[in-house]
Amino acid sequence: MIQSGAAHEVGQSTITPYTTLIRACGKALAVDKAFQVVRSMLDVGLKPNTVTFNCLIDACSKANELDRAFQVLRLMYHYDNPPDAVTYTALIDACVKGGELARAFDLLLQMQRDEHTPPSNLYTSLLDACLKAPADLERAFEVLHCMGNAGMRPAAATFTALVHACGRAANLERAFDVLRYMKLLKVRPTAAAHTALIDACVQARDLAKAMAALQEMLGASDVPEPSVFNSLIELCRASRQPDYALQLFLCMKQFHAIPNSHTFRNLIGACLDAADVTRAELMVQEMTSAGYEPESPTAEDFLAAVAARAEMVPRLPQLLQRLMPCVEPAQCSPLLARLVEALVKGEHLSAATQIVGYLQVRPPAAHTDSCIAARTAVPFLRLPLCLAVPFLRLPLCLAVQAEPAPPSLQLVAGLHASLAANASLASSELGRRLLQAVASMLPPELAPAAAPAPAATAEPQADSSTQ
Fold first, then answer.
1. Residues with Cβ within 8 Å of residue 199, at least 6 apart in sequence
2. Which domain holds residue 362?
3. Closest alpha carbon to 416 in 344, 351, 335, 333
4. What confidence tens digit (pLDDT) does each residue in 312-348 have?
5. Would 427 be classed as within a structural domain?
6. What is the reported pTM?
7. How many structural domains compose the chain?
8. Does residue 66 lie in a domain region?
9. φ, ψ for residue 327 (rounded to 5)?
10. Is residue 333 within 8 Å of residue 414, measured between CB atoms?
């Protein structure tokens, strides 16, 4: 600690060079040298003034030496130099940088007791410190009220940050309090503040308050971004409220917010979760009209929901032809088996037969495209098989095995395997008839591998035909 000597007060011009030197030491983070300068002043009988001590505190703050900064505060009282507003501001800044919020607020109270008015940037610094994770909301609101009592109005960005902090703390009441306090101070809530409030409600999974926040935003003539609508629609789906989800979609149209595939996926999902297949189909139509195609899981769930509803079954073949190209190739066979199973369970034999017939009429576009691409890549495959490999003089069966089975046949084989794996379906008369219908679509070289049981039953028919 700096020892006191026979210091006496002198003119400002005599102390200024020392103060300038201390300030330079602070910029260089040379705190020890700054204290040596003060000792030099005392050795020659000079008494540091408030400005000198403030520069020394600032040097400690820059070097993150908080304890030494408080040591300087004690020196100020020792030399009858009471701290001023600059002193308190420098010390509070040092506490904020060092993460000592409790000491910072103690200094703020002492500053107010000494009748010093904190500057607005000090309040802002304290608010920023309170809002860092983990947020100290009580102290943040304490600073906010102090600013209001001092006639200061925080910037709109500060209020927005406070709403975000309330959302992270899952404290919706406090989040709404921020907007009410903004109105009390006649600070217009910005679109960012409203968006932060809606995000807080979505994070808390509180649909009612989220819709109330949206109404407040729209009432302030602020149009939400499409991402805000998407998060709300997703929350409606999680809350099983398809009516709210569709109202939000109409609101998007009204305010010219452009929906995207994420929007439609959640809208369709919300309708399907509520077993509302009719409105789900309307959303599929809206989606395709907007230039988007349903993703594979969405298309699969929708088609399965259609197959499970008796009144929608007549539309299934048409919907299947339209949406099957959206299904991932690996999921085509399981999906078709799933649809056939649902139709058989509902005793819709005609529709189940049409599903099987769909494979003969038009294989999925994804498979057709891959087949065309393969034939384009290898030119001689465009020719008939007998012309493509006559010089090899191989038996026809070997020539067929040399070329991979078309993807459409792989799909049929996969469907047959999926249907055969369903014990209840395979044991019923209707199921066996469907299995035979699918097996008849396979060429002889693929039928035994795909379904040995149907092949065994087909063998006597072959013998009888031979006879």
1. 164, 167, 228, 231
2. 314-386+406-456
3. 333
4. 888 888 888 888 889 888 888 788 888 877 887 777 7
5. yes
6. 0.68
7. 1
8. no
9. -80, 140
10. yes
